[in-house]
Amino acid sequence: xxYVIEMNNIRKEFPGIVANDNITxxxxxxxxxxxxxxxxxxxxxxxxxxxxxxxxxxxxxxxxGEQVEINDPNKANDLxxxxxxxxxxxxxxxTVTENIILGSEPTxxxxxxxxxxxxxxxxxxxxxxxxxxxxxxxxxISVGMxxxxxxxxxxxxxxxxxxFDEPTASLTPQEIKELIxxxxxxxxxxxxxxxxxxxxxxxxxxxxxxxxIRRGQGIGTVDVEGATESSLAExxxxxxxxxxxxxxxxxxxxxxxxxxxxxxxxxxKYDIVDHLNLQVRAGEIVGLAGVDGNGQTELIEAxxxxxxxxxxxxxxSGSETSKxxxxxxxxxxxxxxxxxxxxxxxxxxxxxxxxxxxxxxYQKPFSNKGILNYNKMYEKAKELIEEYDVRTPHEKTxxxxxSGGNQQKAIIAREIDRSPDLLIAxxxxxxxxxxxxxxxxxxxxxxxxxxxxxxxxxxxLDEVLNVSDKIAVIYEGxxxxxxxxxxxxxxxxxxxxxxxxxxxxxATT
Amino acid sequence: MMDAxxxxxMGLLIPIISILLAxxxxxxxxxxxxxxxxxxxxxxxxxxxxxxxxxGETLQRMTPLIFSGLAVAFAFxxxxxxxxxxxxxxxxxxxxxxxxxxVDLPTLIHIPFAIAAGALAGALWxxxxxxxxxxFEVHEVIVTIMxxxxxxxxxxxxxxxxxxxxxxxxxxxxxxxxxESTFLSELTNFSxxxxxxxxxxAACVVMWFILWKMKRGFExxxxxxxxxxxMYAGMSVKGNIVLSMTISGAFAGAGGAMVGLGTYGYAxxxxxxxxxxxxxxxxxxxxxxxxIGIFLAAFLFGGLQQGANMMQATAGVSPELVExxxxxxxxxxxxxxxxxxxxxxxxxxxxxx
Lengths: 509, 353
Ligand SMILES: Nc1ncnc2c1ncn2[C@@H]1O[C@H](COP(=O)(O)OP(=O)(O)OP(=O)(O)O)[C@@H](O)[C@H]1O
Ligand SMILES: [Mg+2]
Fold this sequence. Notes:
With 509 residues, chain A is an alpha/beta fold. Chain A is 33% helix and 27% strand. Chain A folds into three domains: 3-237, Rossmann fold (3-Layer(aba) Sandwich); 245-333 and 419-509, Rossmann fold; 337-417, no CATH class.
């Protein structure tokens, strides 16, 4: 038997939409198999079918050649299938071990045997190089570490086939490297992996084969050897994709955002933004590059009124906004694409239409004397859904049931459509497919050309280098250097981000 | 398409199945305790619909339940658990009655005035825990529970010291402030049905309007679902917490006014809680925090309470059984997840065949 997993002709419908229509996926023992497709193509749905969370309307599933019916995740576990979801499912104030054994606690005479569990967890962690502390509390560990806990959880339950749904979307570049190592370790130990990712480089780097789906249809499976980024992209989108951002040189005008000597505290009262100075002008895109945790998050929150300013000054288009509440900041002409879409960006239980109006519902013509005009609201939402190609069956569909990438597109539509004087875009393309990324990048450039100021915060150097005109490097809460985007490269940025100095020779050029 | 229909009806199906299961369990209990469930339930039904009087009393009983249900639901929509509806209702009752006694106004002004006084008292009683939650992050459940006791003892002592008229109660409210209706009463064989029933029905529309038509309602629901995103969108999270508790309290207080101005016409020293406020939690839960749902759930609970009398009188079933049925309904609704899962199971099994 060649394949560990065979999903043949799977069909899965949701209200108003066919998420999977006749998809076939065959995974060989010991391979890393990529699942590629646009936002909303049906990748997560297909994997949820395999993991027993959804029942398919049609099609058969074979595990190691034997036809099976997977009605719930426990059954999937029994068959050796484990899944690491994009949004983790961990209990925050439990320890790593407690989370891992939750639901399958080893007991001795009826009592949970935590000691043994901790030992087992440590052992698995060592074997695959996960470097997880079994006794740490979830709330105290990084996102990357939490993800490794999720991986451990599947391994602890004896998973032989691991499903990763966009594991790298929320990781830092360093964490991504570690994850790739871990995946190699898993393969060496005889496991098989299905990997969903929008980053074509990752597919080329780690995967053996790649199955492409488009709008719920299976397009085909190819060997990764011999494939290129553009061949994969074309297969997935159905047209050629332009990877480099097309733009003319910037013509910066007046200063829109002026940050002087800004100090902001983090939750532990530490000055995480430490006397920071930064300017963004109308008509330019400034990229903020830095290793995660150097104050980017707190800086954005301070700029948008979500976090108090300890000292220093923020001005937007000439008026001081340091003490403004979020609504006043917005009205001062700021748009904000937040980095955590589920925390700040969306009310998941609202409809997607309501979410698109989340910043403007109180203004005319949507609201009049305290009464909302839902017709007008949904009209507007419909317009933006079309313009930004948000794939949803209806504008009244709950935001929760949109695919991750389409949720993101709705947020971007909401923030860019107002054409704010200053657009703060934090990880704007996280979880988007290459086609959507191309579109969003061109939108950012379009805003710039309209004379808006854009601050782009991204952990991905590619993106920062491609889209920005200028790059400000943040390190330990300060801007340590501002460089022209076309006069620098990944290497130099990497050095600066690690706190290194710009070489004297280059500085003069 | 199957799916679309299924999700749409699921919201309705779960409460109905819960009710049926609860009645089924009630029947089993009746059999075990040596009663005939058929005669038992027949008595219950005739206790609700049998005579105009019974039906009038059912509507009378459901009137304050609608208000307490709305109060719980309104806070719940904003993400808050208002366990203090009981206390807010008590202060509303008391204040409305006092406003009905001490002033003399033309009817058309006096009734709204007395109801408004009750609603205002309830609103204040609800605003306090709302404020403490917003300002100091004190959990609303603890504060509201404490304020229930304060409400009962303070009103009791005020009645005892200042307003005691005969026995354990205040004077009867002035004619001009009374919600009593000879017309409705005669229509229903001299039940205590009063105009308050229509006010309660109107209150359902008011809650629906605030939550689903008004800008404020949009904000309240948003805060209830996701505080961070609401803050990001420029809404005042603290302001909305206080506001939702205030409006919730106003609903409760108005419910108290219905009892004071309509059912009894006076306020009395309470030996224990009325339980109307606590029943509101069950009403809101069964009604899925929607206006229509609350109206129907209040009818069910009001009817069960009314029909319980007849069950005892004609079928010899103890009224405690009705309370067990009510408790079971709540239990089954609360475990709606399990029912949903079971429906899904059955439906998908059918789909395959
Ligand atoms: N629980 C659900 N209820 C209703 N519709 C859903 C549900 N889950 C997914 N969908 C719909 O099914 C389609 C496929 O969604 P899915 O999440 O599988 O996409 P995806 O390929 O994972 O996309 P992304 O790359 O954006 O994560 C989308 O149109 C989505 O709106
Ligand atoms: Mg997905």
